[in-house]
Each structure stands twice: as structure tokens, then as C-alpha cells.
Amino acid sequence: MRLEHEFSPIYAADSKILILGSFPSVKSREQGFYYGHPQNRFWKLLARICRSEVPETIADKKELCLSHGIALWDVIGSCEIEGSSDSSIKNAEVNDLNVILNKCSIKEIFVNGITAYKLFVKYQQKEIGRSAVKLPSTSPANAAWSIDKLYSEWKTIERYI
């Protein structure tokens, strides 16, 4: 079944980094916002990096990103996908990252997980003429990585916030 990405990117003119996921999970699509699965560690991790409280509402999540110069979006704009499985993504159409890159001074692009990274490299790296830093996935499917182990890799973004 073909699905469209239904929520907007998060960014402001002063965004310094862009964090990209692959495509919203079922739970994220239900909530209408990024990283909506309760076991996804993204918001806990980002709060730790930003030395903030873990945001609970969509408004709080947007504020956390915007107040720390973080832009947030996904590589894929529409695709065929089974449930939330990144490995099932087919016939992907990508988001136009220039929507953000032309309006912000993005210093670095970070990608959340190997599948998102592979999709970025395949569809967007050459197009936008920029590379990205691959970070381990915050997804509950990446259970081998504890929050502390994730933090040890993700803390590289601290220098930009």
C-alpha cells in the first residue's frame, strides 16, 4: 500500500543541524508526528543531549528541536511499506531537502539508522551535494543498543546545539 508522509518538516531559519529518519512508523502516523512509538528512544535521547526535560506533547517536541537549532524530517516522502518495517520500503519518492537547506544554515546532516542512511545515500547525497553522518537507530527494533550506548554515538551533535 502506498503511503504519503503526512506531517511537515520541523525547522527554523537558525537551524544548524538536520536529523533525518526514514519514514514515519505506524505509531508516528497515528500521532501525526515524528518518533511516536512509546519505546522509540529518540525524544529521551534528544532531551538528554539538550539537557532538557523529555518532551511529552507535540508542541514540546517542536520547541525542543527549534530552541536547539535542530531541523527534523524524513528521507522518504512517499512509498510502499508494510507496517513500520523500513526493510519493506519499496518505490520510494524522496522529500526535497532543499526546502530546509535553502532556508537554513545547516552545518551537518545526521541520519537516524542504517536504512535511512542507505536511502539518503542512494537518493539524496548526490542530488544535494552533501554527505551525512550515520547514527545508530533509536527504534525499539534496535534493542541491542541501550540508551547509554546510543548516547555515546549521538552526543556528537552536542557541538552544534
Structure description:
The chain is an alpha/beta fold and 161 residues long. The protein has one domain: 3-Layer(aba) Sandwich (Uracil-DNA Glycosylase, subunit E), CATH 3.40.470. It is 32% helix and 19% strand. The chain has 6 helices and 7 strands, in the order ββαααβββαβαβα. It has a 4-stranded parallel sheet with strand order 3-2-6-7. Strands 1-4-5 form a 3-stranded antiparallel sheet, covered by helices on one side. Helix 5 (114-128) links the parallel strand 6 and strand 7 (133-135). The termini are far apart.
Strand content: 15-25%
Q: What's the CATH class label?
A: Alpha Beta
The CATH homologous superfamily is called: Uracil-DNA glycosylase-like domain
Tell how many strands the DSSP assignment holds.
7
- Describe the strand arrangement of the main beta sheet, using strand numbers: 3-2-6-7
Kindly report the oligomeric state of this protein: single chain
Helix percent reads: 25-40%
State the order of secondary-structure elements, H for helix, E for strand.
Answer: EEHHHEEEHEHEH
**First and last CA, distance:** 38 Å
Task: Please identify the structural class as seen in this structure.
Answer: alpha/beta
Contiguous low-pLDDT stretches (5 residues minimum) are none
Overall spatial form: globular
Described by strand count, sense and barrel closure, the largest sheet is:
4 strands, parallel
Q: Please tell me the CATH architecture by its name.
A: 3-Layer(aba) Sandwich
Query: Mean of the pLDDT scores?
Result: 94
Report Rg: 14 Å
Find the CATH topology. Answer: Uracil-DNA Glycosylase, subunit E
Number of helical segments? 6
- Tell me the number of structural domains: 1
